[in-house]
Write a structure and sequence with these properties.
Helix content is 48%, strand content 13%. It is α/β, with parallel strands linked by helices and 219 residues long. The chain has a five-stranded parallel sheet. The longest helix has 19 residues.
Length: 219
Amino acid sequence: MRKVRGNNAAVCLSCVLSVLLLFTGCLNEGGRSRLGDGHDFGANDPNTVLCMGDSITAGGFSGGAPWPARFAGLSGRVAINAGRRGETSESGAGRISSLLSRRKPGFVVIAYGANDAIRGVSLARTEQSLRSMVSRAKANQTIPILVTVLPMTGSRAIYNGRVDAINRRIREIARSEGVKLVNLHGAIRSDPDRYLVDGLHLNERGEELFANEIRAAFF
């Protein structure tokens, strides 16, 4: 077999290095692809994350910054807090298109279900609203991220049966739509009072946990 020498050897080495750089450039430091790698964002900004949800997203109960602001600090991304107190998934579905059009986010976090559970909104209606939000995000070339509903404690613990049922639907939507799921319920289920200020809303520790769980979803 003839040896490759001189310029030919240099060319071969250059080709190998190029392939390796191309491959490793698509991976993060842990060797895994990042959420959004290779995605066509169109006119959207891949550094902008729209955070939609109810009062748990809007914040103001812990005495500190709500989780979207903490996520922005941790990730270096622009986080738009579009949380609205008292909002159900149906209301969120009613305003997502306008927010996507005006803000042009590369990603949208969809964190609904607590008020649906408290108000007894039917599972079918909640699922329809969440699927609609996922569908509209995809049509806008925005990547959706679904979040499970937090467990409740104290006087609100009576709604946990509904919370569990909604979470089963959220997991199914994520599976069938191929959407990233952040299991926030699972993250605090073993000791919810450690993360909640009033049995429903997040305390400082809970806000920080939520922010870190969303950040981790990108890796």
